[in-house]
Amino acid sequence: MRIHIASDHAGFDLKTAVAEHLREVGHEVIDHGAHTYDPDDDYPSFCVSCGEAVVDDAGSLGIVLGGSGNGEQIAANKVDGVRAALAWSIETARLARQHNNANVVSLGGRMHDLGQGLEIIDAFIAEPFSGDERHVRRIAQLVDYELRSHRGPDPIEPIGA
């Protein structure tokens, strides 16, 4: 399987280890950056690039990594057609695929040791979408909203200010 992967500086070491692991088990890994460790880099461009590649590459999956995985998931989800899920356990990774047909998983490099991170990612990749009617229906509702929504970019304002 082709796996697209991206990270910022906080997920850089995990990305390197994950990519090596995935290649060892036979996956093709496409790295969308960061390509060097830079403590001042910004994750959005890497995660958006990864998300776009997943959408354009039918049958592939994506992995976005950062310190917590939160921002990376948000960035990847800005790409139409991406369903990125923040996974913090094997169960959440499996459910993301089973129920949501997630095509990108987000993980926090500061939240898991390497062994846990690899187990979560392997579970995500191995789990198929259930195809249950209720899950198909719910995903269709989200796609319909994406197609109808023209809200424009989210404002960057402090909430409660």
TrEMBL record:
One of its GO terms (molecular function) is ribose-5-phosphate isomerase activity. Keywords: Isomerase. Coiled coil: none annotated. It catalyses: aldehydo-D-ribose 5-phosphate = D-ribulose 5-phosphate. Gene3D superfamilies: Sugar-phosphate isomerase, RpiB/LacA/LacB. D-ribulose 5-phosphate binds at D8, H9, G67, S68, G69, N70, G71, N100, R110, R134, R138. The keyword Protease does not apply. It comes from the Bacteria. Signal peptide: none annotated. Its EC number is 5.3.1.6. GO terms for biological process: D-allose catabolic process; pentose-phosphate shunt, non-oxidative branch. This is Ribose-5-phosphate isomerase B. It comes from Actinomyces massiliensis F0489.
